[in-house]
Write a structure and sequence with these properties.
Oligomer: single chain
Largest sheet: 6 strands, parallel
Strand order of the largest sheet: 4-3-1-2-9-10
Shape: globular
Distance between the termini: 9 Å
CATH topology of the largest domain: Rossmann fold
Number of strands: 10
CATH architecture of the largest domain: 3-Layer(aba) Sandwich
Order of helices and strands: EHEHEHEHEHHEHHEHEHEHE
Length: 279
């Protein structure tokens, strides 16, 4: 199910989806940067992680979720998952007539602007790193850049287990990041929306001379610009009692709700389970 751009309204919601809870870091930034907007979030908690799945599978999952979000009143969709942005965004943009934005390009642009020596590191899931999408976009903006990618597959389960500040996470981060330190990078892209939740750990390991780029923040700013360009930015504050943000998952609603409240600190009243395979 798709939506014609002619039918889009500034009063409609913003759809956001991720493989699980990591996209909530993007939701948090959207709430901060464009607080008048209502959000419909879908976390594919039954099928997380996406990072070890094939491009075809990630694209199929993403297509189902976009159909679900389009069945609601959304005016734009944020692919708040680096893996889905890398594997599926191009095809989704061809299939759906609705503004779509991923998290890769905004993060890439910020990294190129931040680097001083042109040596940029990227950490992400296996699928994101293997796609080479960050390297490709970085070199489009700066041809002489040296890009060093490192897959960090254990970070997602550590974050989902709530081990944000834990000796186990410290040790895994130390092992993953050692080779990036040796490469002499001065900028590191947190190329998975889960990773901002362990930003302090990553920053401590990398040292204060390495700038950390959070694509979640950059994506929220890019979304605001996109909505302004499309004439879809909501300028009216939401009134008390209006339908606020809505949260949907494919499994484990109660666990998701607890996790979401720890990230957003907004007071998420409920999360509903959806059989996403129906879409």
């Amino acid at each position: 199910m798709s939506v014609s751009r002619k039918q889009l309204s500034e009063k409609s919601s913003i759809g956001v989806f991720d493989s699980g809870v990591g996209g909530l870091t993007v939701v948090r930034e959207i709430m901060r940067q464009i607080p008048n907007e209502s959000i419909i979030y879908f976390g594919d908690t039954a099928r997380v992680p996406y990072g070890n799945k094939s491009k075809e599978t990630v694209t199929r999952f993403s297509r189902q979720i976009v159909r679900f979000l389009c069945s609601h009143d959304v005016k734009a969709i944020v692919v708040a998952c680096n893996t889905a942005s890398a594997c599926a965004l191009d095809e989704l943009e061809q299939e759906f007539d609705i503004p779509l934005i991923g998290v890769v390009k905004p993060g890439t642009k910020a990294a190129v602007e931040a680097t001083r020596n042109g040596r940029i590191g990227v950490i992400g899931t296996e699928a994101t790193i293997q796609s080479g999408i960050y390297s490709r976009y970085i070199r489009e903006l700066r041809k002489d850049a040296a890009v060093y990618g490192k897959a960090c597959p254990l970070f997602v389960p550590l974050v989902e287990e709530g081990l944000w500040q834990d000796p186990v996470t410290d040790e895994i981060a130390r092992r993953y990041l050692a080779e990036l330190i040796d490469c002499g990078i001065d900028t590191l892209i947190l190329g998975c929306t889960h990773y901002p939740l362990i930003r302090s750990t990553v920053g401590r390991m990398m040292g204060e001379d390495v700038a950390l780029v959070n694509p979640a923040y950059e994506t929220a700013l890019e979304l605001k610009r996109l909505l302004e360009e499309e004439g879809l930015l909501n300028h009216e504050a939401r009134t008390l009692g209006s339908i606020g943000h809505q949260f949907y998952v494919s499994d484990g609603a109660e666990k998701f709700k607890q996790f979401a409240n720890a990230i957003i600190k907004y007071g998420i009243l409920s999360a509903k389970v959806v059989n996403i395979e129906e879409y």
